[in-house]
Amino acid sequence: MLGITGTPGTGKKSIAPIVAKRLGMKCLGLNELVKSYGLLGRSGAVDTQKLRAKLNADLSENSVVYGHLLPYVLPSSALSKVVVLRCEPRELKERLRLRGYGPSKIVENVEAELIGIVSSDAFDAYGRAKTSEVDTTGISPTEAAGAVIEIAVSKSREAPRIDWTLDYDSGAKLRLLLSTTG
């Protein structure tokens, strides 16, 4: 089973179905499963323990499972490889704005991507041998899917981790990035 995760807006929902189709696998979106299981709380929070328990019925070895909750609900033993989709924070900010996210949700997700929260959690949950990153900045979902497939079918792939913080090395750059007005 292949896992695809990343901060909201990095391309999971667009890329995972392409990957699944090309690999002849079933595609399961965690957000859709949360809704179908009725696990979305009024505040928008998800009970990850209940989700983890319910997932066993829908999972098969021949699946691509995607969602930002992946590191919190699927154990390492369930996945053969995990790909974390990453996106340069300025581009991510624009993607989220175009999706209609509110200012505070945009800042929350851009901060998470900037410091690599989902990526770090995926590496912690699945280890370096199973986990890789793909930068989706400025490329099409089809191109990104090709990179994910390359990782999925390769025996090993050692690549440097993505670190956006190096690009935001001043207070002025960070304030501009995290501004809710620009």
Relevant terms:
182 residues; alpha/beta; Rossmann fold; 49% helix
Structure description:
With 182 residues, this protein is of the alpha/beta class. The chain has a single domain, classed as Rossmann fold. It has helices spanning 12-23, 30-37, 48-58, 70-73, 89-98, 103-115, 117-126, 141-153, 171-178, and strands at residues 2-6, 26-29, 63-66, 81-86, 131-135. Helix 1 (12-23) crosses helix 8 (141-153) and helix 5 (89-98) packs antiparallel against helix 6 (103-115).
- Helical content (DSSP H or I, runs of 4+): 40-55%
- Per DSSP E runs of 2 or more residues, the count of β-strands stands at 5
Silhouette: globular
How many structural domains are formed by the residues?
A: 1
- Measured by DSSP, the beta-strand proportion falls in 5-15%
